[in-house]
Amino acid sequence: MLKGISPLLNADVLYALKSMGHGDMLVVVDTNFPAEAIASQTVLGELLRIDNVPAADAVSAILSLMPLDTFIDDAATRMEVVGAPDELPQVQREVQAVIDKAEGKHWPLSPVERFAFYERAKDAFCIIQTGERRFYGCFTLTKGVIPPETE
């Protein structure tokens, strides 16, 4: 255990978060996502896990350390529901609330069509699979910057 760092963030996830640079994207996915196959195509090249927790808890832990990118419109995205792209399942509403809280303002999750989401995930820095069992618990988060201390 470390002070001020969520115990959900294991050493592998902490290493990935620290290694990412501004504009790098990570993907948080549910248990149904083809995570192992797609993770092998990411920059990190291996699947990371935050097991036995819902997606919202994993995103909350990640955003406790990582700012979202303010230079792009789609720094936070969600996988669209097939056949109902405007539908927001409960898991996505929960993650939306976590993002809003972490950023201190409403930060809309941009929708991404399912197969486009898979392609987007291949270009990510890493994929983190959670214990989320509900469908459509899949999100991307793009890392922003932390400004220097003011003098």
From TrEMBL:
<dbReference type="InterPro" id="IPR007721">
    <property type="entry name" value="RbsD_FucU"/>
</dbReference>
<dbReference type="InterPro" id="IPR050443">
    <property type="entry name" value="RbsD/FucU_mutarotase"/>
</dbReference>
<dbReference type="GO" id="GO:0036373">
    <property type="term" value="F:L-fucose mutarotase activity"/>
</dbReference>
<dbReference type="GO" id="GO:0042806">
    <property type="term" value="F:fucose binding"/>
</dbReference>
<protein>
    <submittedName>
        <fullName>L-fucose mutarotase</fullName>
        <ecNumber>5.1.3.29</ecNumber>
    </submittedName>
</protein>
<dbReference type="Pfam" id="PF05025">
    <property type="entry name" value="RbsD_FucU"/>
</dbReference>
<keyword id="KW-0413">Isomerase</keyword>
<dbReference type="GO" id="GO:0062193">
    <property type="term" value="F:D-ribose pyranase activity"/>
</dbReference>
<dbReference type="InterPro" id="IPR023750">
    <property type="entry name" value="RbsD-like_sf"/>
</dbReference>
<dbReference type="GO" id="GO:0006004">
    <property type="term" value="P:fucose metabolic process"/>
</dbReference>
